[in-house]
Amino acid sequence: MNQKTVWIINNINAEKLLPLEVNEASSIAELPAEPPFALILAKSPQQDWIDLVKEIRSKPNYRFTPIFYQGDVESNLRHIFDGPSDCELLNKTANQINERLLSVSKLALESLNKESILLIYLYSRPNTYVQGFKSANSPYIYEYPLLTILYNEASGLEHWQLLEDLALKDLLSQQGLVDEIKICPACGSGLLNLKNSCPNCHSIDVKPQRFVHCFACGNIALVPEFLRQERLICTRCHTKLEELGIDYEIPLEDKICNTCSHFFAEPAVDLVCLLCQHTAAPCEFIARRLYNYCITHRGEYLARGIEKSIYTNFSHYFKVIDYPVFLSILSWQVKLAERYSSVFFSVMVLHVTNEDEFIELHGEKNSERLMGQLFTTLKQVFRESDLAARTNGTMYFFLPLANQESCLVIFERIKQTILQLISTEIGKGLAIGISYMTSAEVINNSLQDDLIMAELQTRMLEHNLYLIGDKV
């Protein structure tokens, strides 16, 4: 053969992709400006899957293009693809993704907002989860490769914070507890070192030693100091120490500090952050719970540019604060109520238990109009000093200087309002759960923050007294 020819074998069975047209590109740089129906990506042993997909996603037109893999992919990275190239459902999967993207506005598709990018990606792939894995290469221990790819940036603490914020807004849902790690309270790093030190001076120059305690005179010293001609003799009173437990004992303290000569049994245990060198007791380090995340119905509506929520105008009627701030104020008030008898309060929760069904039955406009009527009435029930917050479709109210009697009055007024609404055609099928708790109950049960909210949710579910209206 005169002409030197090189064939590239990609091991892709093109027949399985029929009737799709198949083209090849030797590198990402050769991809056309207009994205194709789908991409099939292969790599050399020297290349990295994350780097390749990140380079593709960094092209604005390819941000949401279906990508399938050819070859072996680690199990913790398969979620960044839409499936393997030899999958018989490739055509169907890519078609579903592209059809869903058609329902998203061009303005939203071109948005650089991180929240919007993630929600649109998950909306176009409703069965995809944002998954993380532990990585020794990251100072924050846990990485979310999908976010690294979509945002074209290294994984960091802000990725976890973004996911938690979206979960608080009911745009993402936590799916199963994956792991829990300790992080530095100063910088958020998970690279920690366990350090044993002297409990007296906190020096790490500690070594194990055996001590002897003479019962006759109370002298305590190292074993070598007591040894005389291979026998134990007290250096202070010269008593022969022959029987263990009668003449002497071996103390539990078996360590000595070379810095201050203090001897002890258990060392002081500290955690040291390897990133910022912050040192503290293990109890001072923060426990972070790690989850996988999927998009919620509200997140899907927002991705399409539709704020399909009956709480849209909630902040127009009440003094609304962020949920984390609400919890901080609640925790502060609990501490004040524990110390001062003159300080007391109550917390009340309202939740539309059938929001999606109600919207489907009456439509968005009628549902919003009904909730507007409800909020108008509730504004007259609650006081100017009451604070409100909302998350996961639940409305929280902090009622300062409100006792059990005050809560019952508010409860009855709300109940009458809702009963009037559900008696009308527009309010048919509305179901609202209500529960409350006084500061005295909080203190007596030693509840804090999320435990208070969990107890309120439990009361709402377990006690039929607090369920108003009928489910659709």
Please report the total strand number as a whole number: 22
Q: Provide the structure class.
A: alpha+beta
Number of domains: 3
Distance between the first and last residues' Cα? 78 Å
Helix percent reads 25-40%
- Return the average pLDDT rounded to an integer: 81
**Main beta sheet, described?**
5 strands, antiparallel
- Tally the helices: 15
Radius of gyration: 32 Å
* Coarse shape: flat
Instruction: For the largest sheet, list the strands in their spatial order.
Output: 19-20-18-21-22
Q: How would you name the oligomeric state of the polypeptide chains in this document?
A: single chain
Q: List the uncertain runs.
A: 1-9, 464-472
Beta-strand content bin: 15-25%
